[in-house]
Write a structure and sequence with these properties.
Helices cover about 80% and strands about 0% of the residues. By secondary structure, it is mainly α.
């Protein structure tokens, strides 16, 4: 004899697990999002540095993102990668493409911009990148929570 639950009980358990994940992900969002946005802006700004420093800046940024990811996974008990569920994935992809474009723009600006104007360009692009990452992170979080509530 097996202890298999009835389908209604199994579906109720799945819905409860989703609600539990939703509740854990819903807290402490601003601290994470502001840190994420600052790291992303730093990674964008690092692209204007000389060759060994820009690679080091990216490496430090990625390592900080990994540390944040692991700390958040320990706090919530859930590893959320950003690419699931379906609609939240597209928010993450769009944000990544915008930030990659800003990074490419920084590499290009270093090559062609007047050195006297370059600090202003870097400051402006870093500020814009911070806002893109912050807004994108907030939108992603909202879409993620809505999808988790809807059971997708």
């Amino acid at each position: 004899m097996t202890d298999d639950p009835r389908p209604a009980e199994a579906l109720a358990a799945i819905a409860e697990a989703r609600r539990s994940v939703h509740d854990r992900i819903a807290t402490h969002g601003w601290r994470y999002d502001l840190s994420y946005a600052a790291i992303c802006a730093g990674m964008v700004g690092a692209q204007v540095l000389d060759i060994p420093l820009n690679v080091s800046g990216m490496t430090v940024g990625v390592l900080l993102l990994v540390v944040m990811f692991q700390a958040e996974a320990r706090r919530t008990g859930v590893m959320v990668t950003g690419v699931s569920p379906r609609q939240a994935r597209w928010v993450a992809i769009a944000m990544g493409l915008l930030l990659a474009g800003a990074m490419f723009g920084m590499v290009l600006a270093r090559r062609v911009a007047d050195p006297a104007v370059l600090p202003l360009i870097v400051a402006g692009v870093m500020a814009a990148s911070f806002l893109v990452a912050l807004i994108g992170s907030r939108v992603w979080r909202r879409v993620y929570r809505a999808e988790m509530r809807a059971g997708q």
